[in-house]
Amino acid sequence: MRSATMSIFRRELAGYFATPVAYVFIAIFLILAGAMTFYLGGFFERGQADLSSFFTFHPWLYLFLVPAVAMRMWAEERKSGTIELLLTLPVTMGQAVLGKFLAAWAFIAIALVLTFPIWITVNYLGNPDNGAILAGYIGSLLMAGAFLAIGSCLSAVTSNQVIAFIITVVVCFMLLLAGYPLVLDAFSGWAPQALVDGIASLSFLTHFNAISKGVIDLRDLVYFGLMIGGWLYACTIVVELKKAD
Amino acid sequence: MIEINNLSKRYGALLAVDDISFSVEPGQVLGFLGPNGAGKSTTMKMIAGFLTPTAGSIKVGGFDVGEDPIQAKRSIGYLPEGAPAYGEMTPRSFLGFIADIRGLAGDRRRQRIDEVVARLNLQQVLDQTIETLSKGFKRRVGLAQAILHDPQVMILDEPTDGLDPNQKHEVRALIQAMARDKIIVISTHILEEVHAVCTRAIVIAGGRLLADATPAELERSSRYHGAVSLTTPQTPAVVEALRGLAEVDQVEIDPQDGRITAFPKQGRALFPVVSELIRSRSFPVDELALESGRLDEVFRQITLPAQVERARA
Lengths: 245, 313
Description:
Chain A is mostly helical and 245 residues long. Chain A has one domain (2-242). Chain A has helices spanning 2-18, 21-40, 43-46, 52-55, 58-70, 72-80, 82-87, 93-113, 116-125, 130-155, 161-176, 181-188, 193-201, 204-212, 218-242.
């Protein structure tokens, strides 16, 4: 059981590094993360030994980069026909979905780990709270995982990668800002307050900000866990429905 | 053993597979014949567990494909139509992946990979990415993948498509070598292939099973079965003489090469009579042959009505 997931995981992860895509992604991620931290976040000007100017921009960075990783996940399998090969091997749908998701998540985790120079920098310049920084990394990784789960589900909806990318960006953007007027105003006029509050509580940003400040609350972990689990479960259903199209 | 009962598959308004039942025993090489869009691939996809049937049941090696898909898939090696494979992988890493997921390990893993690589002549491309390989090599990588775990049941969708004649010959030899105690189902629209490798042929058209017989039996239903064909410089005289024979039902002349074909009346043996006629009248004959039947003609005869019906529907 476990080994099928692992085999798929290993194949997928190796697949990322078999093409230039992985290196381009990592390079752009590192450049943008650095540029945003120093220029938009004012890392030096703030004069504080923490990484909040680094983590603040992660949601926006992920908004475009994670869908780019996720878009090929199932769309490519369907387009090249390998989905027929994969799903006639002795694996369950859950193993296939999980193996592919974990590989993409591990790939993003590798990119995230490669931002370690900024952690060294801040430790060299001052005495930051490394516990809070670790929490920030955990929060960032969880959010990337949630984006990825959404992206994997939506990449199963279409065999066109561009469409998968755009839909994923839009859905992630809505969820990112679910707690903000841009999204809430569309509902507050007519929907009952309970629904509006419900939508607001789905906001990625609210949960991410809490963790990135160094406060790991069980509710935030559960939120991300449910997000990932829910979207992956939806993904298994969508793949099953659409595999033969 | 494959057992298929009342299998149907519907796509919206189209009934792609319509109430098909058959079973296949070990040692049989079953050829699926039918025009494009007949339902061959759809049926194979259902046996392999990729598509869920609309109705009916499939059992492979005693396991129901719908209820116990993992066990059923373990006993099946499947070559999907077009032999899809992960293009960025090399045959070595691809076969390694398949071996892992099929649970092959240690010595057996190495031994099986070595064996399929040798059998399909993949040595020289082992470390080239699959997307850069020729169509023939891609197809062979797909076949290697399908037989890697030495499965009891092999479902091969157009295994020789895109191969050159030598490669076709090798693949057919491979299928025959594996056939002894296994179940092999292949689909093809190359009729000579049915002759070359299949012990049994099923003709499907318009989603329905129209014939289930050995290739020889199919040929026997051809109107050419038992016919005698010959070429001669004295065409008019020979045709005249042939028409005079009591056993001859009909004589046709090929407008292109002038080949004369005489068709026997129901149940009559024509060859001895014709050869006797040639000898007694001393006709100069360049070539004389007994026709065993033409599969392509039988194929058309069986499948055309179904296609016409579908086009009308």
